[in-house]
Please model this.
Amino acid sequence: MSKTSIGPEDYSRPLRRLLVGVLLLVLLALFLVWRIDSPRVERFRSALVDAVVPNLEWALVPVAKVADMVDNFQSYSRIYEQNQELKRELQKMKAWKEAAEQLEQKNARLLDLNQVRLDPKLTHITGVVLADSGSPFRQSVLLNVGARDGIRDGWATMDGIGFVGRISGVGERTSRVILVTDSNSRVPVTIQPSGQKAILSGDNSPIPLLEFIEDADEVRPGDRVVTSGDGEVLPAGLLVGQVVRGTDKRLRVVLSADYQRLEFLRVLRSHDIETISDPGGLIAPPLLPSQPQPAIDGEAEAGAQPVQGGGDVQEGGSGDAEGPADGSASGSGETGQ
Model:
């Protein structure tokens, strides 16, 4: 007879079934105990809870810790998302702040331009500075207004406070402004309150020189400098700056215009300025026309023929070749003798 071998699975399978059955019975009993509404069962439930639950606190600690970790992780995720959102909003706010500051500066510039008191006869055009070609050898800026806007050479320009320069070169849509700090700039000015006349000469420095002062002893640092209007090149009374004494002990002018931030310039129309269209008699003499040929009539031409014929004087002749035709004949007779 063959013997059948009995393995571990033959014992574990009935034991597993038994344990599952016992667990189901226990769970059913707990369910019935918790569902029965009776004073005795209630006392039993209380006693069971008092006996079991305090002893299971150690088992609940990991569960509580895991629950706390889950809550903390969710809270950290929310905080991280809020932080990223706040960073994005802060970046947007920085951009808006920069735009607001630029608009505030432009608004202040425009308000300054509108509040400058000028001669009512002078109208103006406001232009935007497109480029600044400031260099050690040339001080000028480029405006976005030109001939199509009626701009002419020589017109004065101002920012919101003081005189900046004059138009020197006009295109169809742009114009160039030579600043008073340029070495080629010469502006006649008046120093107040003494009333001394002078020339403001640019030397490519922020504080140009005062030259050809009538009486330098009457000028004090802090005096106000305005355009004089001499020569009718620039309007009179435009604020230029204040007198200071430079490090070289020479009188200079601190300009009122803010040359560090030239964004808008006011071009003053000066229609009363006479435009020079010809060189004038003091510069060069008028061009003389070519000499015309003299008109010769018939009689004059007849009288001119003997002059050509009697030009050569014979030996012993008188050489009198002038006169009418009969005179020429007598002259020939004398030659014949």
